[in-house]
Amino acid sequence: MQHTNGLEDARNYEAKYGGRIGPENRPVFHVSPYTGWANDPNGFSVYKGAYHLFYQYYPYETVWGPMHWGHVKSADLIKWEYLPCALAPDSDFDRAGCWSGGAVETQDGEQMLIYTGRMYRTGSEGQEEIVQVQCMATGDGTDYRKYEGNPVLDAGGLPEGMSPYDFRDPKIWRDEEEDCCYMLVSSRGPDGSGCLLLYRSGSGREWTFVTVLESCNREYGSMWECPDFFTEEGDTDMPDMPYMPDMLPAAILVSPQEMELTGEFQNRHGNIVLTGRYDRRNHHFIRETVHAVDDGYDFYAAQTLLAPDGRRIMIAWMQGWENARVRQNDNLWFGMMTLPREVSIRRGRLFQQPVRELEKYRTCPVRKEGIMVSGSISLEGIRGRCLDMTVQVRQKEDGDCRSFSVCIAADQAHGSTLRYDFAEGLLTFDRSRSGYVDDAMAPKRIFLEDHPSCLELRFILDRYSAEIFVNGGEHVITSVIPTPLTAGDILFGAEGKAVLDIEKYEIRIS
Ligand code: FRU
User: In which residue ranges of the chain is CATH 2.60.120.560 found?
Assistant: First the structure.
């Protein structure tokens, strides 16, 4: 079947083939594409009281292709409803792809999408080339009309020396006080590495350059993809900064390409967070700290939104570009989103917790207290691949416990293991027995400051993935687990004696 890459074609294809994928062949509460391929989350926002999430989408195959926008919505961030494909690459300004972007509700009650169009043009030597431009579409939450004046921002709006070939992934938000919108877009500066450009607009149809908000200076990877930016109200406990009322605690999230693997940065394509202060009068960001957002294998292109109740909520693509080459099963979809997480800036880090709405779907509680582990054990009632399990672990008083481990998605041949070495304060997560073809991938290593002698580990498993929240969300380890679903054992292990309290629930979405 020949595809035109038009919207009607995509919607017809969805109507015809989407239903082939039953709920039993998907994650239970993580977003996966309706059919085909998904990468970055896009337009994560609230519109008319519902959460909307779009995603980079190629409906026709489970590989990356000319990008469309897929679309889901939810009342509670856990149970998602599929909506028809929202954008297709079918116009002059986006024929080579509708790339990542954001969404806001306009004052006249429409939903405005701002995205990167990959546009063919004739270059200075007469050659055909593709540039990246920013485009707008508006709609009612299901159907969108691309603005006839697109692009709304192109090379003409770039400050000197910035690249029109890498000019993408607008993050957009409304400033109620100033009654306008801001947009943060990535480009490459004269040194070839990432720069974040801030623009302002009243209507979304014209954009004025404000400032270069941050630059990579070749320090953290090269191009910085998919920026996100937010401030928090009032003061937080920033380590070295005196409280200044006009200088809000702030965070910039970016996904650098080609990171060097040093220290806590363990992925070539990962997500980092820059924390600091934002002087909102002068649009000046003062950077304080830089950290990896997630310490696992699969986390990219995070976006955040501000929920009506004031929570800052983040979602990301639960994949790494390197790992996306490897296919474990013949599912008719590929690519999942993380569980949405409540985030806050604390002590220069991004603390993350699963959204509390998940608790509504917990069932079949199993509680165990004061379980002594020495060697390897399994526990009655503690198994499965779709669950929310919190494990509190401490050394037995005599303090001779060298390490503690939890092995999930286990059977005779498989198992993915989180291990904690008490003396070194070192957590490792090893999925080399998860069934990946690229088994040799190095375990992830996370050093915990202060070498805590008690740990709280919250495991969220959803069939094909694990997200492990450590000590109240100070660290999170996110990984696809491609292991056959029949591998549902959970084993606890200790060298020496460890004591555990466990609370475990199944998750059911009815
Ligand atoms: C990041 C990214 C974005 C781009 C999109 C294309 O994963 O490369 O920079 O907009 O994916 O699908």
Answer: 362-507
Q: How far is the CA of 225 from the centre of ligand 1 (A)?
A: 7
User: Which positions are annotated as active-site residues?
Assistant: 40
This prediction's pTM: 0.96
- For residue 503, CA distances in Å to 23, 186, 238, 431 come to 27, 43, 33, 24
- Beta partners for residue 182, in sequence order: 173, 200
Q: What is the pLDDT of residues 10-64, one digit of tens each?
A: 999 999 998 899 999 999 999 999 999 999 999 999 999 999 999 999 999 999 9
Measured in angstroms, how far is the CA atom of residue 301 from the centroid of ligand 1? 8
Ramachandran quadrant class, 282 (left: phi over 0; alpha: psi -120 to 50; beta: rest): alpha
Three-class SS of residue 419? strand
Is residue 327 a contact partner of residue 296, using CB atoms and an 8 Å limit?
no
Question: Looking at the chain, which residues constitute the CATH 2.115.10.20 domain(s)?
Answer: 95-354
* CA of 300 relative to ligand 1 center, distance in Å: 10
Q: What is the pLDDT of residue 326?
A: 73
421 CB-side CA count, 13 A: 10
Q: Tell me: cis bond preceding 190? Omega within 30 of 0 counts.
A: no
DSSP 434: S
Tell me, which fold does domain 95-354 have in CATH? Answer: Tachylectin-2; Chain A (2.115.10)
Cα–Cα dist 250/435, whole Å: 40
Question: Can you tell me which atom of ligand 1 is nearest the CA of 255?
Answer: 1
What is the atom index within ligand 1 of the atom nearest the CA of 321?
A: 7
Mutate to test the pocket of ligand 1, among 37, 55, 56, 163 (most ligand atoms within 8 A of CB): 56
Taking 50 as the pLDDT cut, the residues of the chain under it are 439-440
What is the pLDDT, as a whole number, of residue 4?
86
- Residue 481: per-residue pLDDT: 93
Give residue 377's pLDDT. 97
Tell me how far apart the alpha carbons of residues 182 and 172 are, in angstroms, rounded to a whole number. 6
**Residue of 122, 223, 225, 233 whose CA lies nearest to 177:** 233
Pick the CATH number of 362-507 from 3.30.420.40, 3.40.50.1970, 3.90.79.10, 2.60.120.560: 2.60.120.560
Contact (Cβ atoms closer than 8 angstroms) between residue 412 and residue 435? no
Facing residues of 251 across strands? 230, 275
